[in-house]
Every structure is written in C-alpha cells, then in structure tokens.
Amino acid sequence: MRGMGNMQNMMKQMQKMQKKMQQAQEELGEQKVEGTAGGGMVTVVVSGHKEVLEVKINEEVVDPDDIEMLQDLVLAATNDALKKADELTAKTMGQFTKGLNLPGMF
C-alpha cells in the first residue's frame, strides 16, 4: 500500500505545479514587450499573450508617396515584438518543462 501514498504525493505536487503554471500564465499576460523598426521610428507594444496593445509611428517616417515603407516598418516592428513575446513565454513557462522532452511545448 506504500505505492498509494507516493501516488497521492505525486498528485499533490502536480496540482501545485498546475497552480503555479496558471499564475505564471496570468502574469505573462500582464507583461509588455516592445518591438521597433527603422531605428525606433515605429514601435509596437504587445502583451505576453501576443495581443497588440500599442502602435507608435514617428511622424517623420510618414511619407504619403511611400506608404510601402511605412507598412514594412509596421510589419517589422510587429514581428520583432511578437518574437520578444515568444522569448518571454519560453523563459517564463520553460521553467515548468525543464528536463521534460515534450514536443510542441514552449
């Protein structure tokens, strides 16, 4: 019957880890990361949950004759911010999967 005690202990540890993971996931959504392009002429701010929160465009970069450049800068800044959000997620949530080889997990 010793095995049952170990199983209960393991279940309690898993529940604790699940609560910590949920808390970390909530905190991740409250964090903000910033991506930039064009030497800071365009800035995009996203949450840790990859929600775009803000787009800032320096008026100097707005050229009605070159809308494509502005579009490229917004795209580059957004991709930069999303990449940083992915890195933040991996760093934050990776602590829970350390040592486990789980395909598709962070």
Description of the molecule:
The protein has 106 residues and is an alpha+beta fold. The chain has one domain: Ybab, Chain: A (2-Layer Sandwich). The chain is 57% helix and 17% strand. It has 2 helices and 3 strands. A 3-stranded antiparallel beta sheet has the order 1-2-3. A hairpin with a 4-residue loop joins strand 1 and strand 2. Helix 1 packs antiparallel against helix 2. The protein is rod-shaped, with a radius of gyration of 21 Å. The model has no long low-confidence stretch (mean pLDDT 87).
Counting structural domains, the number is 1
Per CATH, the architecture is 2-Layer Sandwich
Oligomer description: single chain
CATH superfamily: Nucleoid-associated protein YbaB-like domain
**What is the global morphology?**
rod-shaped
CATH class: Alpha Beta
Structural class: alpha+beta
| Helical proportion, percent range | 55-70%
Strand content is 15-25%
SSE order in H/E notation? HEEEH
Q: What number is the mean pLDDT?
A: 87
Count, helices: 2
Number of strands: 3
CATH topology: Ybab, Chain: A
What's the arrangement of strands in the largest beta sheet? 1-2-3
Taking the sheet with the most strands, its summary is: 3 strands, antiparallel
Q: Rg, please?
A: 21 Å
Whole-Å distance between the termini?
37 Å
Which parts are unreliable, with pLDDT below 50 for 5 consecutive residues or more? none
Keywords:
three-stranded antiparallel β-sheet; alpha+beta; rod-shaped; 17% strand; 57% helix; Ybab, Chain: A
Summarize the model shown.
57% of the residues lie in helices and 17% in strands. By secondary structure, it is α+β, with helices and mostly antiparallel strands. The chain has a single domain (2-97), classed as Ybab, Chain: A.
